[in-house]
Amino acid sequence: MASSASRFRPELRAPGTPSPRCPACGSSEAESEPSVEPGFALLRCRDCGLGRTWPPESPERVGAWYPERYYGKGNVRFNALFERLVRWFRRRRARVLHNRVPRGPVLDVGCGRGLLLCYLRALGYEPRGVELSETAARHARDVLGLPVAVEDFAASSGDAGLYHAVVFWHSLEHFPDPFAALSRAHEVLKAGGLLAVAVPNYDGWQARAFGRWWFHLDVPRHYFHFGMRSLEAVLTRHRFRVVRLDHFSLEQNPYGILQSLYNRLGFRFNLLYSLLKDRSARTETVRHYPFQTAAIALLLPFLAPLSLLLALMETALRSGGTIEVYALKE
Ligand SMILES: [Zn+2]
Predict the structure, then answer these.
(1) Centre of ligand 1 from the C-alpha of residue 52, in Å
(2) What does each of the 330 residues of the chain score in pLDDT, given as a tens digit?
(3) What domains lie within the chain, and their CATH numbers?
(4) I need a labelling partner for 295 at 20 to 30 A (CA). Which of 81, 100, 228, 230 fits?
């Protein structure tokens, strides 16, 4: 397996020692700020802007940050209306890939419930998924009947040159070593194959405006916080040619602003997100925080349109809250 130029190995540093070198550009100049999660800080490289959760959670312990409810009861994550929306978004994403990728084997790394692969199968592709835990893979495998390997994709082997497309949709930032994962993606793609990556944009307006209150930081589950600059630099170094970069995601960006506004206003962190989950999670949340729930509902008619407007503005400025990058294997 090809290895990247500078394999990053998470290690603990005592406070006050110099910042560890940036695995994307090699710089040791970084700004540090606390995160909302006690014990974890955010480091931002002064040169390329790559962010890191510091210290990185050990791969042995990170599983505890993905309780079963993270995936939702019966792997249904949200209430009925939002479930329909999520499915519509997945179908749309499958069609975007269909416009760029010939039929054949495609791999979704961090495939979650497998909805994207399910729609790709309906379009005539041979879908395969990878997930890190049996819990995460359950719905895709048992309900949708998709082939899902439970393994660390970065450490897997075989299948060189097999896939027409490899997808990392909000999964690359969850890897302790995303550089090894990209090397592996390069290896399993056919020549000219498509790499599709979506990540929160650490260079973007939302990230800057909300700082540690930003919904999409998701510390410590996100080990790395990519921005446009750092992601393009890393992809180029891994011999991918970026062919398209989108700054608008209706699914991710307005919601990122809305939830971050509530976080900034002092509501319980990510409370709205808990309210949008399936009924059992929602009932529990409402019972624990009745007044905050009512205040969130009262503010929603004002903050929701404001968030959509701000998301359109950040898109116009090419500074989206999340970015979607399409690149070809060179
Ligand atoms: Zn850097």
Answers:
(1) 10
(2) 334 434 444 444 445 556 789 999 889 999 999 999 999 999 999 999 999 999 999 888 888 888 776 766 555 566 778 888 889 999 999 999 999 999 999 999 999 999 999 999 999 999 999 998 888 899 999 999 999 999 999 999 999 999 999 999 999 999 999 999 999 999 999 999 999 999 999 999 999 999 999 999 999 999 999 999 999 999 999 999 999 999 989 989 999 999 999 999 999 999 998 888 767 778 888 899 999 999 999 999 999 999 999 999 999 999 999 999 999 999
(3) 29-330 (3.40.50.150)
(4) 81
CA 15 to ligand 1 center in whole angstroms: 20
- Cis-peptide into 102, omega within 30 deg: no
Task: Name residue 143's amino acid.
Answer: V
Helix (H) or strand (E) holding 225: strand 224-225
Burial of 115 (0-12, 13-18, 19+ CB in 10 A): buried
Distance 189 CA to ligand 1 centre (A): 27
